[in-house]
Amino acid sequence: MSNIQINNVRKTYPGGIDAIRGITLDIADGEFCVLVGPSGCGKSTLLRMIAGLETITDGSVSIGDRVVNDLEPAERDIAMVFQNYALYPHMTVYGNMAYGLKNRGVPKDKIKVMVDEAAATLGLSEFLTRKPAQLSGGQRQRVAMGRAIVRQPQAFLFDEPLSNLDAKLRLKTRVEIRDLQQRLGTTSIYVTHDQMEAMTLADQLVVLNDGAVEQVGTPIDVYNRPASVFVAEFIGSPPMNLMPGEIDESGLVTPAGVVAAPAGVRHGAVTIGIRPEHLHPASDGPLRLKVRVVEHLGASANAHGTVPGHAVEMIASLTGADLPDKGETLGLTVAAENLHLFDPETGRRLH
Amino acid sequence: MVERRPFLTFIQHAVLILGAAMFVFPIYLAFVASTHTAAEVSGGVPLLPGAEMIRNYSLVLGEGISAAGAPPLWIMLMNSTIMALSITIGKIVISLLSAFAVVYFKFPFRMLAFWTIFVTLMLPVEVRILPTFEVVAQLGMLNSYAGLSIPLIASATATFLFRQFFMTVPDQLTEAARIDGAGPMKFFRDILLPLSRTNLAALFVILFIYGWNQYLWPLLVTTDESYYTIVMGIQRMANAGEETPQWHLIMATAILALLPPVVVILAMQRLFVRGLVEVEK
């Protein structure tokens, strides 16, 4: 058990491509940290640098007060779960889980106790003599988890471990991973491009963009107060509505109408962000939405459309039975505290 | 294919049977010839086996054909086996290690090393046979098992095959092994070797036959009868100088020379076929 400190870490590939451009993170002991971002944002590279599979160009990584920059992956006392599980195909489940222990010179009888215990934790006891090819995708995923937990490392590193599972199993395994991590209390870093996974798993959510940290915080913080347009668009499904606007004496002028502006924001051009679920139908509401498509999700429905007279796309998430039809123009209202305002130049939050 | 057309089935089988017969017939002829007396064979080989099988085979196995200047058959069989096995095992060990180095280690001139190995694919034994002979002669390795096998051990084909196979092994497997604390040689032994099992078997069969069938090279480097291999031995028998070649005995030798490769193929058949047709995932 230990904390992980990432101090101004950089990665420059030969040819001068900056994959990681100075990231500083502090992950507390036992914390579940999720790195999320679109593909190519450097999240996997950062994880692999922590694991020791990529060299660190500049800065330092320490695991439990020990700088690990120049240590081999095996010496860093971490375990990693790979996207394609990377199980040894010729070894049984037992062999897969025991291999790391065997290489560390753990006595045979002790290995057996440890593997049996880890297998019991994951419900793998009856599969110990099988080969990976004889297991289903979900079971293989659990073997990969088992290989990680059996060594009782200081940290778990997950590299998109759920992306090879089907949607239903992904939900189930997501809960299992969270539950397991809480029970073991092991510091974990988890990489994903799926914002839903990131939201549900994280203690600390790190949104990465183009090799730099865009925002760090608890999932709820990040969701409620996105620090930039990028985070606002990336976190949340359906994504946040964004439209240009301006603040003057009358309030916030949007393409869809004038609404009250939040207090303490400078006058001038802004980018307005409104989450779909914060739009409520009101026949005299200041915002107008010409509905093009209605998606019924059961508990709620998403109305997709445009603001009449403008080329601005908007989505409203509606609950209740009174749903609009295609082609109808909907009046919508939004509370001032649910408005997100960003600087159109820098993309940063204004309030 | 799921087709139900009886006529097509008939044609398919006819073609297959004809093809098989074409391949089997010479061997059948050799076998028939080996079961007759010299007189019966001399006028043309009969189509049905004769009664002299046991006598002919015990003759070649025991005494050899002294008149033809060949040693007893079992010595030649043993020489061939030793040569074929040394070539096979040597080739596999060297090509495994060189492919491992080329794929998994970064060192200067790595690709140059690989291409140098690859270029030798274009130089078959026969092309470089004179310089090789000169080197072997200077090293005093004529008439020895080392001289028979070492010059044939370097193998570009096997190196290339293993390189291609190693490149299909997912990187994550290597990384998982690194995290599990396996050093390079441990990774090689515990992960790569077991994964290459089927490829190894296929190569073993192919290379064993390659080694067994070596003809020109043993003919050059051996002058001492006790190092004759069976394939060149047959040639010695056929060129029996003044006398008529004893075809019935030569054919018996040929049939016996066929057996070891067949045994190797049968023993490794399952792995061999799998190694050629599929990559174990």
Descriptors:
heterodimer; A: 351 residues; Rossmann fold; 6-stranded mixed beta sheet; 5-stranded antiparallel beta sheet; 24% helix; elongated; B: 281 residues; mainly alpha; MetI-like fold; 70% helix; MetI-like_sf (chain B)
Description:
The complex is a heterodimer of chains A (351) and B (281). Chain A folds into 2 domains: 4-228, Rossmann fold (3-Layer(aba) Sandwich); 238-342, no CATH class. Chain A has 8 helices and 20 strands. Chain A has helices at residues 43-51, 93-103, 108-122, 137-149, 167-184, 195-201, 219-224, 229-234; strands at residues 4-13, 17-27, 32-36, 58-63, 66-67, 78-81, 155-159, 187-192, 204-209, 212-217, 241-248, 251-254, 257-259, 268-274, 280-281, 287-296, 301-306, 313-318, 329-333, 339-342. By secondary structure, chain B is mainly α. The chains are: A alpha+beta (351), B mainly alpha (281). Chains A and B meet through strand 6 and helix 2 of A and helix 9 and helix 10 of B.
Choose one word for the global shape of chain B.
globular
What is the end-to-end distance of chain B? 26 Å
> What is the fourth-level CATH superfamily of the largest domain in chain A?
P-loop containing nucleotide triphosphate hydrolases
CATH topology of the largest domain in chain A: Rossmann fold
Low-pLDDT parts of chain A are none
Total number of strands of chain A: 20
SS elements, strand count of chain B: 0
Subcellular location (chain B): Cell inner membrane; Cell membrane
Main location (chain B): membrane
Protein name (chain B): sn-glycerol-3-phosphate transport system permease protein UgpE
Domain ABC transmembrane type-1 (chain B): 77-268
Summary of the model, kept short:
The complex is a heterodimer of chains A (351) and B (281). Chain A has 351 residues and is α+β, with helices and mostly antiparallel strands.
